[in-house]
Amino acid sequence: MNRQFFQNGLHGKDANVDTAIVFNGVDWQQAGKKPAGFPHTVWELLFHMNYWQDYMLDRLTGKISTSQNADEESWPAIPSPESEDEWNSAVAHFLQGIQKAEQQAGRDLSEKVVEGKEETRADCLQTIVLHNTYHAGQVVFARKFLGDWPPPTDGGS
């Protein structure tokens, strides 16, 4: 695996929709609506994606989580953002995380990133790519159920 592999993977190139655009055009109030028969709102998915992307980015800098229940913490307490600002901040944070992962992809991919562990930079980046891709698919599916897909082509968010 090389830098280009991760660059492509972070954006779904030649495989799936770009994870950087799955939230384009989502209204903050729409983000809190749960489609019938669907397990999560778009807000819940974004919150969860941010949590685990941050978790893995921290590992890339040698920080180990001290969380006692990361699985539970990775989902929001309420199914919708409380404001447009909260929504916009969360989307911006997600996009910044993708940029940080892209920067990490330019470094030594075989470097062990957590002292005492065999985990490499490539391992952490692969987790980010796979996790984001999986949940980006869920976001698209939820948006389709809500009649909110595809996103606008003007790049608005």
In short:
The chain is mainly α and 157 residues long. The protein has five helices and no strands. It has helices at residues 3-11, 42-60, 70-73, 84-105, 121-145.
Q: Mind explaining what this structure looks like?
A:
This protein is mostly helical and 157 residues long. The protein is 50% helix and 0% strand. The protein contains five helices and no strands. α1 (3-11) packs antiparallel against α4, α1 runs parallel beside α5 (121-145) and α2 (42-60) packs antiparallel against α5. The longest helix has 25 residues, at 121-145. It is globular, with a radius of gyration of 16 Å.
Task: List low-confidence stretches.
Answer: none
Shape: globular
Radius of gyration using CA atoms only: 16 Å
Using DSSP, what is the number of strands? 0
**Could you report the average pLDDT, rounded to the nearest whole number?**
91
Total number of helical segments?
Answer: 5
Helix percentage: 40-55%
Structural class of the helices, strands and pairings? mainly alpha
Largest beta-sheet details: none
Order of helices and strands: HHHHH
Distance between the termini: 32 Å
List the helices and strands and how they pair.
Elements: H1 3-11, H2 42-60, H3 70-73, H4 84-105, H5 121-145
